[in-house]
């Protein structure tokens, strides 16, 4: 009898603990029990959050080359915002590093709209997902798509509901190419401000900048660039001092870097939606002109220490980039031509001879033209990257393209005019209900 009594009390205690234990803790144990069964996942750590019931960072072991797994592995950082096993899941195909997603306040837009789980995937060769040693030959679009397929396959053992892929900028581009290589991995995709460039210097961005916004606004931008160049003699010492203090190094003379900052100014100005009212008058002091130039177009972008190196390698290899129109500024520039500047300035010497391969862009165009996957593309009207967007897609039942009027690279569902916003949400609700 005594033994039976102890067992009864034990079971009663467990039952009471189950009743009074917070549901979030029970869910946490359930999530951890499920995810820890996968031996390819390591380093699981809980994160503070007030946007999910639970949030974790972890690492998934990936092959350097998915076609040749014997060549080695690296660890890819993944951040999981858990809501419930019965909820939809958003996989964020980040194009860069995932550091910002660690913040307790962070939650991706679509996962919040539909109270969905979030699987946030850091791109290979960025931050904590950089192989050691860093062998650039494995940084390809196909390998990045294979990474995402591996992540999705892993987490589908936990989340069996609808799956949505999404990403911003290069992450949007990654979301598109992921769909191209694995069209059935997710139910639908929402790439934000995603370019589809055809070449290393695509050729569509320069004409775009010659017609963006109004004549008056474009003139103000160009006049500022000219003013910055006219004052180069007086501003260059400040520029040199700043670069020395920051310990920047460059592959070309500093005066040429100054010129590139001025050329970049118009692209960056429209990309981030800077108000034209913030452009200083031509009568402004050297300090004001100098500070505004750096606020929009900082020399760190062209430095050997740039955090964008992995992106530049991808751009040179197959993702593409943009060129500069030097015509209005030629008489003030120390550079003779900007052609091939990305290879010449942004890549280390051992990678300067990378040849651009057009196969990826052709594959993506063919996928969109011949197919009709469920996808919603979102762009900003004034964003120069929209020049290389898929705004040319017409008469598709499932592919939808939305353009935010006057919008920038910050165009999102939430920034759309209310009718368009509701239409986007309605389309996604319909897809989630099927």
UniProtKB/TrEMBL annotation:
Stored Pfam families: Peptidase_S37 (PF05576)
Key words of the record: Hydrolase, Protease, Signal
Domain of life: Bacteria
Keyword Signal: yes
GO terms classed as biological process: proteolysis
MF (Gene Ontology): dipeptidyl-peptidase activity
Transmembrane portions of the chain: none
Protein name in the entry: PS-10 peptidase S37
